[in-house]
């Protein structure tokens, strides 16, 4: 009779926290083995999210040092770079996902299908809602933590544009499924004899708002599908009736890549009939058109307003905070970033009790107070107090900055160049004003890490290694009756290594690594596929992906609408 029920939520657990909600521990089940039971005594590590950052953390954590609980609304990890391919059936959804439970099993952790909604930092309680598919309303409860890692990613930035409810977004697996359904539905409607040529043109007008990697890859996949499969199997649809347009606010697409790559992508799109409209801002979206304002080439002239008929619109323009990240930011002092929660160089959320809350990936942004550094370093390196520093002093100062902020490493590799750039009066010395301008630019460089899987995965891996070291250190300390250490005392700050950017641009791919760019046709596309293939989280998805690519090569894409 006193057996613990298998489902911890049915336990009538203790209540508490500011909202007096049930406090649940995910691992109360007494049918667990010895090792899992022993983990109950270990520090409670709660991970929020099941994407790139969270999975990299799971894969690098020590296996028996933390009592891990992962909370995410989706029961799987999704390989986002291949979502554009899934929208048009080049690969299948099942080939891109890995069940979270399989990944959590490595650390004998627990998975709860739910979402974080709030946090009580003073009592270290994370408020979550858990989903039971048979109940209409989610159940709210608290999960206690010793360490909390926020890896909830981002949502699309609406930029205050009207009519976004008429757009599709591409962030998740359900988004890709909805897009595939809509594309197939438009094609079938366009092929009906009852559809007028005018209606057909609108149905076959696909507009992508945003010329970043996601928008560009989606446009490329869509245009491949139209050329390779649609024209072959839909005799009523003519090539001249299909249009794919990319609307970009800047003067080039892929503007975070090198200029050579942007130009190559634009030329390739021109050849594939993908129309790129640059210097254009979306004003409004209605059920059948996109209203844009085009910047005039002549200075002082008012922008031109244009209407583009559209049967499908993808909105893919930058990132914004998830509701949970926004809630966290509201609870903290001195958070002023609009797109993510500010963290320090150890991925600790600024303003939260030290060593308890960390954030990684799209939901986090590094905050560096370079002004503080400037005040400290100036007095130290301005040795002869002549209110300027020479090149030798600058070298010493730069070494100190690199130590404090490893992310400045690449930028500070050209010391002479930087010195000359900021020595505006060419007196071979930098005045306080000149150094201040340099620090301002440096601060921007340090904090502007891109929102990519690469950054999220490296930060997740970094935290995993840091927590491993912490577990080892604290074991020894506790055995000697000493308190736990601060992160700085046993680990180094996060250091990002850029491994290059990749993009698919229609039976071709581009690759960018620190100024080196590789562009090319089929060979580059196969290189693109092999890189993504090798980055898969399991052999299962590798095999499935390989089968999908072969299937598509032999039989073409599946054009059924579900
Ligand atoms: P995500 O991977 O987005 O994971 C967030 C997780 O948190 C999800 O599981 C979500 O369900 C969960 N979550 C959200 N809210 C809550 C909550 N309240 N409680 C609990 N869980 C929550 N990057 C590249 O480097 N290369 C590419 O080629 C590339 N291509 C991309 C293509 C597409 C279509 C997209 C959308 C993105 C692409 N990116 C690419 C960007 C990359 O996917 C993101 O930068 C990366 O996913 C960020 O990882 P993350 O862990 O921060 O968040």
TrEMBL record:
Location(s), subcellular: Mitochondrion inner membrane
Q: How does it sit in the membrane?
A: Peripheral membrane protein
Q: Which UniProt keywords apply?
A: FAD, Flavoprotein, NAD, Oxidoreductase
Question: Which positions fall inside the EF-hand domain?
Answer: 369-404, 410-445
A GO cellular component entry from the record:
mitochondrial inner membrane
What highest taxon heads this organism's lineage? Answer: Eukaryota
Q: MF terms per GO, please?
A: calcium ion binding; NADH dehydrogenase activity
Q: Which family does it belong to?
A: Belongs to the NADH dehydrogenase family.
> This protein is called what?
EF-hand domain-containing protein
| Organism annotation | Kockovaella imperatae
Identify the taxonomic lineage of the organism of origin: Eukaryota, Fungi, Dikarya, Basidiomycota, Agaricomycotina
* Entire-sequence positions represented here: 118 to 679 of 679
